[in-house]
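Researcher: For the annotation table, I need structure tokens for Glycosyltransferase. Please keep the output clean. Sequence:
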Amino acid sequence: MSLRVLMTVDAVGGVWRYAMDLGAALAATGHRVAFAGQGPEPSPAQRAEAEATGELAWCDIPLDWMAERPDAIAGAGPWIDGLARRLGADVLHLNSPTLAAELAPGGPPVLAVTHSCLATWFAVVDRAPIPEPLCWQADLTAAGLRRADAILAPSRAHAAATEAAYGLSGIAVVPNGSRAPLLPPGGGSGAVALGRWWDKGKNGAVLDAAAEHAACAVTLIGATEAPDGQRLEARHATLAGPLPYEQAMARVAEAAIFVSPSIYEPFGLAALEAARAGRPLLLSDIPVYRELWDGVARFFDPASPAALARALDALAGAPGEREALGAAAQARAERLGTEQQATAMAALYQRLAAMQGVI
């Protein structure tokens, strides 16, 4: 049965790619998808991409992690309620659980998807409690998770971390998918990495330090400065800056190695995209990467620039191993397409709608 799904998005992070790829796959199987966005406005190209799948509505309410206090985002829930009524949504798919906190009762069933959160980030990156000025965000996330009819994570590792952080159980897991093209393994030159490099969880400083000692050239694609001014200063790696999606994927396809030094990664969509491009994966040894890529990638200690430099040069000097690893990663990645993701998500939507008496 076709469902009307209202999915929230933002234009500044990985949620945009997640939503666009999943939305297009759902629409291809007959579901009607609309998008509700907040925060910085999408570019004309982003707007066109979304509208190729369904309606895109936008409000100027800031994203929770860009807001300084809770009243700045207080109107988001009522705005989504009104949009859901106007569109006749059967299911609300919220890519930020905080948005569920102020939804009115009696609306369509709510699926809250946790792509990341402050509590799990601070537990891993700073290994410290959330600072007092930010506690309201964690409280709002907790309220949204309690309000949701179901909670979803993109990996077992992130589901377990979220359950531990908020005292929850039963979080469902559907891995992210990608429609990045499948390309022949082998070839290329240098190493490439993708991320929002101002985020300490991406561990860009260690990759830059490794680049000082590695013979293999290293390029970082992605923003280096946060909206609040926090930035990564790189002295040894090449900074390509943020690129349009197609250009970023082209740069990945031209590289000999894809590297991710992240210490906090709820899924790691860039690694999946690189694997689909047939690139060998050189990944930080963290739980989510072991869960998804164990046996088809090379791993390194993300606290050691020297270990990363050695791993880069060893792989750069072994073209046969790179091609074999790229082929193995690509075979694993073929199980993580948007078709499989959309099938699993549609089944979850159907169960939610049936439980709420929507269908």
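Researcher: And a one-line annotation?
Model: The chain has 13 helices and 13 strands.
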